[in-house]
Amino acid sequence: MKHNSYFDGKVQSLALAEKEGPTTIGVIEPGAFTFSTSSEERMTLISGSMKVRLPGSEWKLFVAGEGFVVASGASFDVEAKEDVAYICRYR
Amino acid sequence: MKHNSYFDGKVQSLALAEKEGPTTIGVIEPGAFTFSTSSEERMTLISGSMKVRLPGSEWKLFVAGEGFVVASGASFDVEAKEDVAYICRYR
Question: Predicted ipTM?
Fold first, then answer.
């Protein structure tokens, strides 16, 4: 199983296979991070909440159960004030 | 962030803090595993499905969105035929 660690370990994820394609689940610790995409990403929050700034958009708060889609080749910013768990589907 | 690896890496988890207490998210690869609890565990499947045998119960299939509670000091068996993602709350 692939274990990924980013930003000095403040963001970590585990890879799994879903029938529809590759997926990760992960945890984001408190902080501000910028992620870049190399494929379309469909992210859903499982626990916690964080602010997200999608390309061309204003900051918006997302809570557990909510999610967003980011196109391939883009970048987006997040700001977490608590631990956030997420599932991210690469499609 | 604490990263845990069990069963030769076939089960891995990441720890996070929720307001209500400690939590992990994790992935279970295909296989049969027996887990022991040292506190009450409330487990919910996020992705995939697996059979679970709780103490004193028969095997039962759980799918994403479903979950179960295991008392402290118990053990339970799982059998996964696909990757399973879960969230486990220790309360």
Answer: 0.95
